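Researcher: Here's the sequence for the chain we discussed earlier.
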Amino acid sequence: MESPPVTTGPGVPARRVPVGLVVVAVAMVCVAAASLLSLLDPGYYGRLGLPEPGALDRLLVTALRATAELGGGLAAGSLLFAAFVAPPQLGGVLDVDGYLAARRGGRSAVVAGLAALLLGPVLAGDLSGTSGPTVLGGDWWALFATLQEPMAWLLCGVVLIVAGVGGLVALRWRTMPLLGALATASLIAPAVVGQAANGAGHDWATDAVILQQVATAVGLGVLVALLAHLHRGGPHRDLVLRRAGRLAAVAAPVLLGSGLVLTVLWIGFAPFGTAWGVVAIVRLAVLAVAAVLGLLLWRSRPGPAVVVLLAGFAVAAVLAVVLERWLPPRFAEVVDTPAESLIGYDLPEPATALRLLLDWRFNILFGGAAIALALIYLVGVRRLGRRGDGWARGRTAAWLCGCAALLVVTSSGVGRYSPGVFSLHMISHMVVNMLVPVLLAMGGPMTLALRALTPAGRGNPPGPREWIAVGIGSRFLRVVLHPLVVLALFVGSFYALYLTGLFDIALRYHWAHQLMNLHFLVIGYLFFWPLIGVDASPTRLPHIGRLAVLLAAMPFHAFFGVAVMSTSTVLGGEFYRLLALPWVGNLLDDQHTGGGIAWAAGEAPMLLVILVLLQRWSRDDAREAARHDRRADADGEADLEAYNAMLARMSGSERS
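Model: Thanks. This is the structure I predict for it:
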């Protein structure tokens, strides 16, 4: 039943999206998809060694999965539309379009979250050869603990409901980016523990499926919100079209490229030999045609362009659900080695200096991010140059060196061998956590963005420049960048990861390894930003305070290195023993080497940072002295004469 009309602004009536009808439509599509699956691949469960579940269980799994994924994508994109596409009011309150998009996203997130919660036990029964009620009636927690995907769907459901409730009650646009990010991240969790987490090449497959989920969520939801905006005749039409077009122009190629990577990994270069390959190629073809036509028509005929793009994203999302319930041909034909199962590829040869330099394996997420960050930075520098504004070459060099260091340490032989050798892992970790953040902070990216981007102007909707300014001044950053907070995060992360069981998880799963790298990169940047960064920080410390923070962090790094060198227990020992690289010697000796690397490699960047800080301190003192001299020359040493006169009066009063 459709909800009653609501008024979101003065004289602006709007009707809520009938979520119930959307869910029914999705369920009908899923029924057709499940029927197609059973006809094309009747022996799916037998090849997995599982008993054949009932028809209702098969239908429920597919229907609930599609409802959760499509509804979650609609929610994430709608919330992001409210954050970055629909301009808010001048006071920061959501405008009509933002309000409608936020409420649509909130309702979709709640529906998708409930579907994800139901999918957990149903999928557990499907994977174990039992029914959903049987799973809940037995020792369900023990079963869930051994099945990662049902547990991931439960987590996804909880996060989606939290984001949905926020979307239903929030009125300010500042909260929309967080809610959109939560909804998007929730969809990543089930994807990274599904088919992509298994077999050879699962490192590339995991990265590709992360990009696929994000691109689907952003593209699908933003296009639905944009179509509703155009249908309603909302304000700022040209601005909304321009912003949504930029998101779609990024999301479509990312979705197409990630789908191509997954297709090649799972069926090779002979895609038409299996029905799975045919469906995968059809999916890519539909998406490619829709992307090309939609983007070409965007400026001249935006309405049809949005419909074409939305149809392409929707078909791609539905077919992705079908393929997720279908065993890729590669898994039925190839037996993986232990190394391929654990890290995604073999390491048959020892890690020589030449191999560390030349034996590359591109890290899709971090390698791609390094290249993208370098290109975006250069575009900003070029824009300043065209306006006749200068930008320090040293800042550009620091940023590009930071991007290059991130690319090399994650995609060269160092990145390739680091999952299998603790000492090399520690080199990678120290570069990501210490060297790369220092170089990036010295590049001043936010200062460059604030100078390169055009201000929105008084009375106009805020744009990227205003978003960055609001983010820098946010309360969240002020709390995180407090010296005690950021110091605890920076130093405590080492001990929390390596001296607990978290390191074993990070080794065993590629998604956890990538999350670990992201954590250390972000924490490192947040630590060094207010200390030596060019950008203005919400927390401004005097130079003596910055030096105190650095000196306080150094002993903890040294203690950590000594602790790793002194321990008699192999960190991640079970993983390394299962990996069983024949050319790796004693695991404990290699760990002690890694501890020495952590000690030495952690102190060297800190000393470099101290030297930079002292140099800036000296330069700022020289500037202050120069300003004082200019002021003295201008007023004829008035301050000094007043000071001497005060001393004379004091001396006279004492004699009297």
